[in-house]
Specification:
GO terms for molecular function: 2-dehydropantoate 2-reductase activity. Its EC number is 1.1.1.169. Belongs to the ketopantoate reductase family. By secondary structure, the chain is an alpha/beta fold. The protein is about 50% helix and about 25% strand. It has 13 helices and eleven strands. It has a six-stranded parallel β-sheet, with helices on both faces. Strands 3, 4, 9, 10 and 11 form a five-stranded mixed β-sheet that branches. Helix 7 packs across helix 12. It starts with a strand and ends with a helix.
């Protein structure tokens, strides 16, 4: 029996990690990688393959299947989800025929609310928690560029069978993916969420890239205020984050190319829909729920809500 893995979304995350999987298992009899795409991305990848550009190389990969038709996609053993958070419900419900009761779903979205939302749609399925550290973007449909030096994937679960998680970890490792099966996955996902939520909120509010935030004292103060608010919520929720998480996060930024910005900021500049609900509003809502004040997040939410209306 073949293990069939679907990659939903071929952006910076799905395109990069899906590309490594497709390259590794191109000739495999045991593992089949299926790209799930639509529109121009589907057309380009079907005709010319998916191109992945890194600092060292350019690679073109061809999956066994690339489609948005559930009949062609077929039943999946694993589904790796990497669309935008505002597409979760619509994109997954469109694949209902491909998701059996045995399909294990791995969300690699920005934000921390995806597993709960997916379980509401598919209550009988095993849903992992996961996150990635990567600076990667779509250059054009079917072309993904990785601009950073970190490409790490973390996943785990308190309820999914260990054998299924270890099987997936082996598949990742054999594809040379820097993946880690993490015991305390909720802490790891929130640690990433702190990084991505603050960066997305700050870059969009200030209209600055990472270098500008680090160079400007006022911008850096706003960044640190956002960090203080979200880490306070994490502490009240009982999550175990590093004591020096603010300093760790700033060090991560300093290692990133200074002209890099968040994907939410890129979407805002391009006039596209943005993940405001999952990355900024969610923190304000959690603050209200746990009685933690979030005045800086509220400032960001108010400004960006007005921009989007």
């Amino acid at each position: 029996m073949k293990t069939r893995i679907g990659i939903l979304g071929l952006g910076g995350v799905g395109g990069y990690f899906g590309g490594l999987l497709a390259k590794a298992y191109q000739d495999s009899e045991e593992i089949e990688i299926v790209f799930i795409a639509r529109g121009e991305t589907l057309r380009v990848v079907a005709e010319s393959g998916l191109k992945i550009i890194t600092k060292e190389s350019e690679t073109v990969v061809f999956p066994k299947v690339v489609s948005n038709d559930p009949e062609l996609i077929g039943k999946l053993d694993y589904l790796i989800c990497a669309t935008k958070t505002y597409d979760i419900e619509e994109s997954l419900l469109a694949l209902k025929k491909c998701i059996t009761k045995n399909t294990v779903i791995l969300p690699l979205y920005n934000g921390v609310d995806a597993p709960e939302r997916i379980s509401a749609l598919f209550p009988d399925n095993e849903v992992l928690e996961g996150c990635v550290y990567i600076f990667s973007m779509i250059v054009s449909p079917g072309v993904v560029q990785n601009v950073g030096s970190l490409q790490r994937l973390l996943f785990g679960s308190y309820s999914v069978s260990v054998s299924k998680m270890k099987a997936l970890q082996t598949i990742f490792k054999n594809a040379l993916i820097d993946s880690h099966l993490v015991e305390n996955i909720e802490d790891a996902v929130w640690e990433k969420f702190v990084f991505i939520s603050v960066l997305a909120s700050a870059t969009c509010y200030l209209d600055y890239n990472i270098g500008q935030i680090l160079e400007n004292r006022e911008a850096r103060n706003i960044y640190v205020s956002l960090m203080n608010e979200i880490t306070m919520i994490a502490a009240v929720k009982g999550l175990n984050l590093p004591d020096d998480i603010i300093m760790q996060t700033i060090l991560k930024l300093e290692k990133t190319p200074p002209d890099t910005t968040s994907s939410m900021h890129r979407d805002l500049l391009a006039g596209r829909n943005i993940e405001l609900a999952s990355l900024t509003q969610f923190v304000v809502d959690e603050g209200l729920k746990y009685e933690v004040e979030t005045p800086t997040y509220q400032l960001v939410l108010d400004k960006l809500s007005n921009l989007m209306n």
